[in-house]
Design a protein that fits this description.
With 295 residues, this protein is an alpha/beta fold. Helix content is 32%, strand content 25%. It folds into three domains: 92 residues, 3-Layer(aba) Sandwich (Rossmann fold); 36 residues, Orthogonal Bundle (GTP Cyclohydrolase I, Chain A, domain 1), CATH 1.10.286.10; 144 residues, GTP Cyclohydrolase I, domain 2.
């Protein structure tokens, strides 16, 4: 995800082009982005009590959590965002002028981490923690690289008979993976077994590329069920691009989830998920052969 700094002129242009700055509107600005925007409205009436407003204004509609809170409490009022990801093709991380991460702003990601350290009872100024916020941000850039399409590995696919041999048996690869649970943002990790049967006119994927794709899809907040699905669908698409689709493909992953091991149930255990396509799904013998090798 790219970081985009919003200039003030863009804020002013959006206000001018919108219909919110009207004398027909009584507007409540959501703290703090929406509240800041209300300071630049010339025609609309501004209130500090949402009960009296007919429009609730925010700077951005992103995950929808803020909006949902106001919509549930005030269903009869319009919730409006100056930047609305529901209707615009916004995939970047927007940084507003009133945020420290902005060259002219006040709020940083590191500052938010400092507040989290304070929340758990730590002293962020003690020697061992002074540089921790910077290290965490640097770590996140690495372990969550799966959100950046520029980091996706280039896939090498070869025609089945490029080496003078048409291979029509099972090809397997296995290895380790590390990911983060999207429910508690703690790691889950384990082993995977990937296998496929190329078709006669199909493609063969480069040996290291399977491992690289596993790492790429793992480098996001995930659930293990989605992880096996995303990897298989991605590799299937690559092998079917300009070639005959594989006869079958499967991926099994075993994972230990620290959200279960170190909290909650506090029980050590392994979760197993499998995604099958083609003959690995439809043919019992092929499915049995693949699963028997996942050890």
């Amino acid at each position: 995800m790219n970081k985009v700094y919003i200039p003030w002129i863009d804020i002013f242009q959006r206000i001018k082009q919108s219909e919110i700055d009207s004398d027909k509107n009584v507007i409540y600005g959501v703290p703090k982005g929406g509240m800041i925007i209300t300071a630049f409205l010339k025609n609309a009436n501004v209130t500090h009590n949402p009960e009296y407003a007919n429009v609730i204004l925010d700077d951005i509609y992103d995950s929808g959590k803020t909006a949902q809170k106001y919509i549930e409490k005030y269903p009869e009022k319009d919730f409006v965002a100056l930047y609305d990801k529901r209707y615009e093709n916004i995939n970047d991380w927007l940084v507003f002028p009133w945020e420290k991460d902005h060259p002219s702003g006040e709020e940083t990601i590191e500052g938010n981490i400092v507040r989290q350290l304070q929340y758990i009872g730590e002293n962020p100024n003690r020697p061992g923690l002074v540089d921790t916020p910077r290290r965490i941000v640097k770590m996140w850039q690495e372990v969550f690289r799966g959100y950046n399409p520029d980091k996706k590995p280039k896939i090498s696919v070869f025609k089945n008979d490029d080496d003078g041999l048409v291979y029509d048996q099972m090809i397997m690869d296995s290895g380790n993976y590390y990911s983060y649970c999207e429910h508690h943002m703690v790691p889950f990790f384990g082993r995977y077994w990937f296998g496929y049967i190329p078709s006669q006119n199909g493609g063969i994927i480069g040996l290291s590329k399977v491992a690289r794709l596993v790492d790429y899809h793992s480098a996001r907040l995930q659930i293990q069920e989605r992880l096996v699905h995303d990897i298989v669908e991605d590799i299937w698409k690559e092998l079917s691009n300009g070639f005959t689709a594989p006869l079958g493909m499967g991926l099994t992953m075993e994972g230990e989830h620290l959200c279960k091991t170190m909290r909650g149930a506090r029980k050590k255990g392994v979760m197993t998920t499998t995604k099958l396509k083609g003959v690995f799904l439809d043919n019992p013998m092929a499915r049995s052969e693949f699963l028997s090798r996942c050890k």
